[in-house]
């Protein structure tokens, strides 16, 4: 498939690598001009383009930027055909994104993204750490294969997202509609806890929506205490232990 990725940080770059290796035709963009693309990103085999080019003539567009940057790129989406699948990896972290009143007021994060873009999306790859995404993929059928949750409102988005997740080396766990995707937001038991599909099935309904923000903020406080920055990517093992201790 032809896939455009906007945002090539920890997650976007890893997706460029994985999806390129799976045989897809991947183009990537960030805030800079294509000539200034990091060589590490080009080493994935992806082609550097502008953000405008990343949304043109692609079957799938993946957004992997901080949530509070989504309004910056929203105007580009006016020209994206309805049948294109847009998959968003973002999460709301007020310590990084500043407070977004609609989300603070209870709007599900992915529904806020659909409001900003004015179109349907799928939500995926938001609930796995970038290092786990890079290193922990396994063949289909392996009993220890980690599952990545995803949500979408349209059947076509659901099918494409499921297929792409599986091609990155993980089981795809369908959590249902975007309105229910708070179950895969930061603070939920299935968020960045590297569970199998069977483990997700046994834990997803234990999520308590009202408790998620406090648990998310406790995790950020612990990361900041170690790393002095709310934007730091924690060491994979520490991040996993922290998420399991606080969220499950
Ligand atoms: N890190 C993780 O393990 C992880 C896991 C799951 C989900 N997520 C979520 O996925 C999203 C990306 O996270 P990340 O850690 O990969 O972020 P990151 O390392 O900070 O990278 C962000 C990327 O977005 C680009 N970007 C920012 N604003 C942009 C704009 N207006 N137009 C085009 N590109 C823009 C940046 O480009 P420049 O370099 O040019 O600024 C950069 O390539 C976040 O919402 C995060 O919460 C992260």
From TrEMBL:
The Pyrroline-5-carboxylate reductase catalytic N-terminal domain covers 2-92
**Full protein name:** NADP oxidoreductase
